[in-house]
Amino acid sequence: MTFTFKIKQTLTLFILSSAIILNGCGGSDSNDSMPVVTPPPPTPTPVIYQYEVTVKNLTNAQPMSPIAVVLHDEGQLWQLGQAASSALEVLAESGDNTMVLADEMVLAGESGAGVLMSGMQETITVSIEDVMPQMISVVTMLVNTNDAFSGINAMVIKDLAVNESISMQTSSYDAGTEMNSELMATIPGPAGGGEGYNEMRDDVDFVAMHPGIVSQDDGLMQSALTQAHRFDNPTLMITITRTE
User: Fold this and answer.
1) CA–CA distance from 215 to each of 41, 66, 112, 143, 230 (Å)?
2) Matching CATH number, 48-242, of 3.40.50.300, 1.10.10.10, 3.10.20.740, 2.60.40.2130
3) For 68-123, how does the pLDDT look when each residue is reduced to its tens digit (9 = 90+)?
């Protein structure tokens, strides 16, 4: 009897000890739950504002320099009666649009592929992400001139709906930075093959409507231009379409 009692007592102590050890490990304690990880918010889809600008050259024999198209919220590329900016001067005398496209007011800009010949047209696409532009400007040089240019200046487009278009015809302007001598040495286009930009300003130094050319056919014997190079307004047909 005594031996049996001791065996039962030993088993009882073993079971109690095992229970204490298991409780001490805490392997199944429901209070030790894993922390909840909150996933990051989804990346918002960017909003694209995109415009197609189609430019047609309406002149008889005036090639247009590579066209600059810029989106902006403030500023103007030119003002009648005011001196031309350095960027406009370079474009109007040489056809180089690099400085216009790099102007600090520009939010986004694109250049045409090359020279736009008479009667031809080109479509240029310009876009910007997450910022609706307020205005658009387009500018190009009449390359068989000293410093004539054409385009549209700070046109408001903020209310233009997707798939809506605006069309207009443009006039020609004189940058007022180079005398309209029509000399071969000062005409950068194919009619002259002369110098483009020259930092010296030897004209009235303000932007005005262009009076047109004289040409050798009208008695300006020094002129590199002929009647074929004359241009009457309108100079360009421009259509702006918001596509996105």
Assistant:
1) 67, 24, 29, 15, 8
2) 2.60.40.2130
3) 999 999 999 999 999 999 999 999 999 999 999 999 999 999 999 999 999 999 99
